[in-house]
Amino acid sequence: MTVGIVGAGQLGRMLALAGYPLGVDFLFLDPAERPPAAALAPHLHGSFADARLLRTLARRSEVITFDWENVSVAALRALQKDVRICPPLAALAASRDRVSEKRLFERLRIPTTRWRAVGSRRQLERAVHDIGLPGVLKTRTLGYDGKGQAVLRTSADIERAWRELGTVGLLYEEYIAFTHEVSIIGARSASGAVAIYPLGGNVHTQGILRLTRAPYGPSSWQRLAERYLLRVLQHFRYTGILAIEFFVQRGRLVANEMAPRVHNSGHWTIEGAVTSQFENHLRAILDLPLGSTRATGYAAMINLIGRMPPRKALLAIPGLHLHDYAKAPRPGRKLGHCTLVARTRGERDRWARGLLATLAPNTRIP
Ligand SMILES: Nc1ncnc2c1ncn2[C@@H]1O[C@H](COP(=O)(O)OP(=O)(O)OP(=O)(O)O)[C@@H](O)[C@H]1O
Ligand SMILES: [Mg+2]
Q: Which of 97, 200, 247, 326 is the most exposed place for a label (fewest CB within 10 A)?
């Protein structure tokens, strides 16, 4: 049984690592010469929109999934008559464009930031006037790891932000002075079973996820996040893993964005939950029973960004699990992550603070 995956980055690689014990094979499509997942399974080398390669992928796969959002929805739509594609393309299309994502949250009564679509310099001025300052200007599509964003603090920033980003469709939203960032991740299987993980607490530096701790926060946050996640899962009759990121402000959860795929803030589940998000994604799309999402302890996951620390030093830390994506180093690039599962919240937090103090001393951890 083969699962076809559009995109062969680290998420695809971890899907394959989770799938082999279940007897699942993989086939990838990716434009990179040697992407991280290609070391594990055959790789069709070409564009995400290459109709011929996509047809080959469809012919050889039981089901097709994707490991990031910036694939071609139109090209995938053309395949739908020949092969099952999960998660649903409607969810992919909604999450690719920040404007349709905001509209979806509003339609499902999920609190989100106040926002305006921006297509011209004049509209940006009007949006800043309506929404106020500070605010964040973001590209509608193709953003990741904080790329394609500018924070506006005074009206003097309008000019700079417009020059930086003004060539594509944009969205301007209020800046949220959050106390915490959290994300909820859950799976819905083809036959409608749902399994949701404990909430993760996330810390970003320069727009890039640095640390996730899970379980995290009071049960009231967990309940709210689950309620919102369920609305999106049901709306799309979703199949696969879905993640939603929230800002926490005065006990309220404000949705930032969603991802129709396995998510970086769910990597802790590999060692920290009974069943990982990767395995549950595969179980969901293959319509197998979902596995338990229970946390086995208190996990912290730290991303290794830009430069890989010496393997020897990391592995000398008792209990540390290392995941090296075998990527070439580059500033701001996610090269791997490490996870520790502690017996108590306090032990976990001490470990995370200690390791981050050496890896990224400027990280502010709530
Ligand atoms: N409106 C906002 N108010 C305050 N902080 C924000 C806002 N928007 C974004 N941020 C900060 O920037 C981070 C990245 O933003 P966002 O999640 O929109 O970007 P992305 O590039 O799509 O990231 P991802 O890698 O999660 O796909 C957020 O997690 C948050 O820390
Ligand atoms: Mg994000």
A: 326
For ligand 1, atom 27, the nearest C-alpha belongs to: 144
Q: Environment class of residue 145 by beta-carbon count within 10 Å: exposed (0-12), middle (13-18) or buried (19+)?
A: middle
Cβ–ligand 1 contact at 204 (below 6 Å):
yes
Backbone angles phi, psi at 283, to 5 degrees: -60, -45
97 lines ligand 1 (CB under 6 A): no
Residue 26 pLDDT level (bands cut at 50, 70, 90): very high
Residue with tokens 């594509």: 168
Helix-, strand-, coil-residue percentages of the chain, each rounded to 5 = 35, 30, 40
pLDDT for residue 60:
98
The two structure tokens encoding residue 220: 């009231």
Q: Check if the beta carbon of residue 355 is closer than 8 Å to that of residue 317.
A: yes
Q: Where are the beta strands (DSSP E) in the chain?
A: 2-6, 25-30, 43-45, 63-66, 84-85, 115-118, 135-139, 149-152, 170-174, 180-188, 194-196, 200-205, 208-214, 240-249, 252-259, 298-305, 321-324, 334-342
* Residue of 149, 256, 364 best suited for mutating to test ligand 1, as the one with most atoms within 8 Å of CB: 256
Whole-number mean pLDDT of the chain?
97
CA-closest residue to ligand 1 atom 7: 175
Structure confidence by residue, pLDDT tens digits, 87-131: 999 999 999 999 999 999 999 999 999 999 999 999 999 999 999
Mutual orientation of helices 10-19 and 277-285 as an angle, nearest 10°? Answer: 70
Q: How far is the CA of 27 from the centre of ligand 1 (A)?
A: 32
Ligand nearest to the CA of 174: 1
Q: How far is the CA of 72 from the centre of ligand 1 (A)?
A: 23
